[in-house]
Amino acid sequence: MTFQKKFNLPETATESQLKFMKIVLKEIGGDIYNSFPDSLYLARIQLGLKDRFHSFMPCLKCHKLYNKTDMDEIQKNDSIGIIRCSHVEFPNSASRRMKSCQTVLAEREVKKPELIYPFVPIHQQLETLYRQPHFERLLRHWSNRR
Ligand SMILES: [Zn+2]
Question: Which domain of life is it from (predicted)?
Fold first, then answer.
């Protein structure tokens, strides 16, 4: 994975490399390498590397973000088949209280949202930064320079 990242290799090249490594390891070491992954999917599972993105579905008009679980709940309660945005811009205004956005978010038959907003929580982003070599030293680099 480090090799792929360092040389910016495509996934197909890395997968071929994994398959080749498994053949070599099995030739040298025998059956103890049967569990060595021969695909990127299996390698990511064994190494615990997962995409930990949260996906939100934003409204195209008002940009309100909906959780996937919220959308599933709305789908259960909605019998029409089209999921619309329920955001009210001014909920305390007496005249605008009942005006919700009503922009189509997804159609039930298609089950595909109009737009997806991928998001990684801040603690996972920080975890990724701190795993980089010498990251903590680099944080203090500005104070040591001339
Ligand atoms: Zn909306």
Answer: Eukaryota
Mean pLDDT of all residues in 23-38 = 91
Rounded to 10 deg, the angle between the 11-29 and 40-47 helix axes is: 80
82 contacts 104 by C-beta, under 8 angstroms: yes
**pLDDT recorded at residue 98:** 72
Taking only the tens place, the pLDDT of each residue in 9-27 is 898 999 999 999 999 999 9
Question: How many other C-beta atoms can be found within 10 angstroms of the C-beta atom of residue 99?
Answer: 13
Q: Beta strands 82-84 and 104-107: pairing type? A: antiparallel
Q: Assess whether pLDDT exceeds 90 at residue 115.
A: no
Q: Taking ligand 1, which is a single-atom ion, which protein residues have CB atoms under 5 Å away?
A: 59, 61-62, 85, 87, 101, 103
Three-state SS at 126: helix
65-67/117-119 β-pairing? unpaired
Q: Rounded to the nearest whole angstrom, what is the distance from the C-alpha of residue 65 to the centroid of ligand 1?
A: 9
